[in-house]
Amino acid sequence: MRIVKEAEIRRNEILDAAEELFGQKGFDGTSTGDILGKVGIARGTLYYHFKSKEDIMDALIERTNANILGAAQHIAADKSIPVIDRILRVVMALNISGGNGSSTEIMEHIHKPQNALMHQKIQKAIISGVPPILTPIICEGIEQGIFNTQYPYECMEMVVIYANTIFDDDMVEMTDEVRMSRVLAFISNVERLLGAESGSLMSVMQMFGNGEEARDEDGE
Amino acid sequence: MRIVKEAEIRRNEILDAAEELFGQKGFDGTSTGDILGKVGIARGTLYYHFKSKEDIMDALIERTNANILGAAQHIAADKSIPVIDRILRVVMALNISGGNGSSTEIMEHIHKPQNALMHQKIQKAIISGVPPILTPIICEGIEQGIFNTQYPYECMEMVVIYANTIFDDDMVEMTDEVRMSRVLAFISNVERLLGAESGSLMSVMQMFGNGEEARDEDGE
DNA sequence: AATTACCGACAGACAGTCGGTCGGTACAAC
DNA sequence: GTTGTACCGACCGACTGTCTGTCGGTAATT
Questions:
Q1: Which of A66, A131, A150, B129 has its CA 20 to 30 A from that of B107?
Q2: What keywords is this UniProt entry annotated with (chains A, B) (predicted)?
């Protein structure tokens, strides 16, 4: 039986299947056969739409990224929100999902030894995508006298890389207590980096309280 | 033809071959057949000594790590060297090699998209191995009034993760100029983190001058 | 005679290729 | 406005080559 669809629809079906399977079993753990079965297409079809298995991953990351970064960018541009609140909101948007809530699941399963390549690619996208969104907010903060640094971009880069590695990845195993002390130290360090008054960023600690599980009151 | 050797010798022959091949062609790009050919043994022999291909990688990382971290630890413990010099020396030892110079080559080829898993494992080892070596030196610095921070360990963690990601990996493409400005900002940021006097760490910039190519005057 | 190191044929799985097929659409002819 | 036809994009699935890991057996060593 043969079902014909528009190319972009098929493409997205494949990406949807891959998203779920990669999340469950990792990239290496997922065979193209698995994807074939889930979508209900033949091998040739898959390779008609994508040139390799890795190509699927790249497309998936790009799709997910466009969502997430777009949402974050949107919040970042809203100058009616006070600087510190806005930073918090932006980071929330980055951690939780890309609006529709469809891209949430992958993020929860990505930090596994198996998915190293995917993880690395996402990491790269985060590093080049997030600091440019946050930096303008920091600059506003500098104008307002809340922050003080010559290197807002580099600070954001450092903060993003560190937070992403320690708090999102499982690079270092932590009990909840250790994690809490890391958060405290982190906030204190960020205050120093940004030249903010000591304690002025403590309010962002709530972000780490529930970690990535938070999903109650986002009215987005 | 059948050549019998002591298990540990064979093991190391295999690791030597794997080290070179992984460096040249990456982990995924290297087949167990390649290793077999290079060492001159049969499949069964390889799997007599290692339980899987990944097991080879793990063993290799562990071997390399023991060398590098050992050398760094050795320098770190030498209290006759002034604090800042010592930090510099330790970091040099980490970047350059593990003493014998045998493990240098891998490090040069590891930062490639192919070797994601190996890279991740090494990253993990660095993150859990390096800060504990540097922290006591920072503490000495605090006692001497050079530094001032409540969180020496977390600072080192942040610094190590950032430097390793930005300067060692190719996570973000940089021209030499951009790189230089990153180094400047980095040093300035580290000074703030450690509560060091502004400019007091500028001397470590030499480390980044020639990047990882430096290998002239280490009298080790 | 027992243990340790080694061999190589083999099974099973998987990514990617290729020739061929089918459905839809545009458009001409009637 | 119905029928004929030419074309193309989407789709199929058998096949190839490669690779990892296994297993039964063999040679050296103690």
A1: A131
A2: DNA-binding
